[in-house]
Amino acid sequence: MSQLSKEANEAVKSDIVVFGSETNPSFYTEVQEICGENALQCYQCGECTAGCPAAFAMELSPNKVMRMVQLGCEKEVLESATIWLCAGCETCATRCPKGLSVAKVMDACREIAGKKGIKSSEPGVSAFHEVFLAGVRQNGRVFEPLMIALHKVKSRNLFQDVPLGMKMFAKGKLPLVPSRIKGLEEVKKIFKKTAAK
Hints:
By secondary structure, the chain is an all-alpha fold. The chain is built from 12 helices and 2 strands.
């Protein structure tokens, strides 16, 4: 093979275009390093999408996310609302004939998006993630009244659920004082160990 044809071949490999967008061939390996799931094993049977309770709200179905990870469509996946709408229920893993967890792949994609500074197109969902984890970091479990209040402030949706909150408070469903778990130091070690570098 001549030097010119080698250079042309390398140029083609680096400028791969899928669905009108550039791809990142190492995207699936980056996802796999984070979550341990090999997206290349997915053969698009659609079981994950058929069982997903949140698929109706996603612009990309779970099996499409897996295919796009395989193809290296990093930008489209990381900028989609889909990765933020995954509830992490693991129905996908239960139904998958290969035992793959799309939920873990979605979580890895959220982590990559965060590292790259890509903001969620679902700000209410990312605000929920932040306040939920802050509560777990503080007490080892969630303190619902504070979580709700912080989420309302972050999402700027202050008064939508006030009547429901009052009913829950009246029935004793929302405690006034947070409780802490016994193994709080272990939880704090987990947060410290997994903190973004």
